[in-house]
Amino acid sequence: QVQLVESGGGLVQAGGSLRLSCIASGIFFPINVMGWYRQAPGKQRELVATISRGGDTNYADSVKGRFTISRDNAGNTVYLQMNSLKPEDTAVYYCNANAGIVSITSNYWGQGTQVSVSS
Fold first, then answer.
1. % helix / strand / coil in the chain, to the nearest 5?
2. Where are the alpha helices (DSSP H) in the chain?
3. What is the rounded end-to-end Cα distance, in angstroms, of the chain?
4. Nearest-angstrom CA–CA distance, 73 and 66
5. Which residues have CB under 8 Å from 56's CB, separation 6+?
6. With 28 labelled, which of 15, 59, 84, 109 sits at a CA distance of 20 to 30 A?
């Protein structure tokens, strides 16, 4: 059974920090890219950051310089260090894993963790 389990969300004041973690299990094929997405109330889900198996990273412009994504050596755990948080970062944060070989890939999602930033 595939599971992506997120942790680390919570309530923090503006300017504070949080660290999200996501552990993926039960995925048979190699995990190519892991990432974090977020969805604020009334808005579409948007990309926050991704990291490839080789360590290449990609960030949304709104979080560049404040958030850092990283991945463990085994490749099935991804972290998101969030610094200098702003109220507009408030959202449910979802972990994503893209796994597969060649052109046959699948996307898996976690259940989401709430991040709330007060002004």
1. 5, 60, 40
2. none
3. 40
4. 23
5. none
6. 59
Distance from C-alpha of 76 to C-alpha of 89, rounded to nearest angstrom: 25
74 is written with which tokens?
Answer: 């085994």
Strand partners for 46:
38
Tens of pLDDT, residues 27-47:
988 999 999 999 999 999 999
Question: Residue holding tokens 């926050």?
Answer: 48
Phi first, then psi: what are they for 95, rounded to 5°?
Answer: -90, 145
Cα dihedral 66, 97, 112, 39 sign: positive
**Who contacts 9 (Cβ-Cβ below 8 Å, separation ≥6)?**
18, 20, 93, 113, 114, 115
* 76 or 79, greater pLDDT: 79
Provide the β-strand partners of residue 79.
Answer: 21, 70
* pLDDT score at 74: 83
